[in-house]
Amino acid sequence: MSDLASRLDFAVRIAREAGDHTLRYFRRPDLEVESKADLSPVTRADREAETLLTDRIRAAFPMDGILGEELGETPSKNGYRWILDPIDGTRSFARGIPLFGTLVAMEANGESVIGVIHLPACRETVYAAKGEGAWWQVESAAPIPARVSLVSALVNATLLSTAPEGFAKPNALNALRNLEVECTQLRTWGDCYGYALVATGRADIMVDPKMAIWDAAALIPILQEAGGRFTDWNGRTRADGGNGIATNGIFHDAVVERFRFTSASL
Hints:
This protein is an alpha+beta fold. The chain folds into two domains: 3-145, Fructose-1,6-Bisphosphatase, subunit A, domain 1 (Fructose-1,6-Bisphosphatase, Chain A, domain 1, 2-Layer Sandwich); 154-265, D-Maltodextrin-Binding Protein, domain 2 (3-Layer(aba) Sandwich). It has helices at residues 3-22, 44-60, 90-94, 170-182, 191-199, 213-216, 219-225, 252-259, and strands at residues 33-35, 41-43, 65-68, 72-74, 80-88, 101-108, 111-119, 124-129, 133-138, 144-145, 158-161, 185-187, 205-208, 229-231, 244-247. The strands form three sheets. An eight-stranded mixed sheet has the order 4-3-5-6-7-8-9-10, sandwiched between helices.
């Protein structure tokens, strides 16, 4: 087994452990939701899950860097950096909606090469490493290859977005609405759940107007290894672009062109 494949196995294992830890708090009536400085929500489950992930990584790879949404950053000493989002979709989690997940990514010298989306309430995991393929496992069934759809025309495409109200500026919202008219349907199956759908061929396009690096880092290797693409709205394959587009790759450039000139206004 290659070093990258071994690290992928580790990433899947800790993502499942942390995601399953969040289920201890899921749909609990006494769950307290706080607001961070940017007004985004956070819970005890977020912090505990990220602490679990961080502890596991430090024990296994003490030279690696770690960047987490809740606990900040530990610099890398060897070119490897883990990027963590313990609960992607905290708003859904806090309302008892199962469309949330744990994201674990790893960079090698600045390139995102490992990605895991674990959806604990849905009992699904989608994961990939560069050159090792993308995989989809549901409950205890054997993993199968994760592959994007073969939909080749926008008129047949299912478009996803976390929430239309996130498109704050009129030109960005207009771009979304115009794309919606071209596609079969728009659904707001958002956060990492939507990207898991694109990576497994159950949807064709996901567009997000606002993303942090921990929202996006895991998505790059997953979409690429599944045969699709993830970029920012300027078409750059990067996790820190501030927004994101994922597609099956066939009409990716066409979708990017609809949003490219709206990025600066968000």
